[in-house]
Amino acid sequence: MTRDELITLKSKVQDCQKKSNNCHALVDQLERDVLEYLRQSDLTLNQLIEENKSFLKSEKVQANVSKEDSYPFGTHAIQLSGNIHKNGFFYLSTDKIESPFFNFLAKNQYPTSFKGKIQWDGKIIIKATSRKFKLIGSRVPVQFNGKIDENGTIELSIVKSRFELFGEDYMNNLILDPFGQNNSIRQKFVENIVQVKKIVNDYIQIELV
Length: 209
Hints:
209 residues, single chain, globular
């Protein structure tokens, strides 16, 4: 996208904001397009992004279930997504569960591993890649261990679970920590995100005129 095209898109955002409070999609698009445009030439921005990618690489990732939910016909989580919070931990919520109406074994199954993608800006999505079956009841995940490679691919495997007789409970929230006890990296990761966003927003406000 060219600078002139970015200016046109900014004008659309401003026109939308004059008429409505629901311009989030346009604003997000503008920020994404400006980011990609700046990545072609802004050395500082690229260094911040690449540094965050390197921070994420880990062989010792831990994730703990922080909240459960229930479904009366029995189910289990098959997809979670989320983002990093300002405290440097990743918070994920279940956004897809297995339908017991299409899979009558859903209440007796539980996920044992997940795989997905984690981004330099803290966005993350994971999907169940394997499940186990119990003849009576099911199990609800409690804790996962895993790893993240240099491309941001994350893999999690269950290490702790609890028995659930009716298969109604499932994990709803997960807190993930790829940084271990390294709080300085945790803080720097968040700071880098803030810096990149500032570079993008400053360019939108100052340069796109």
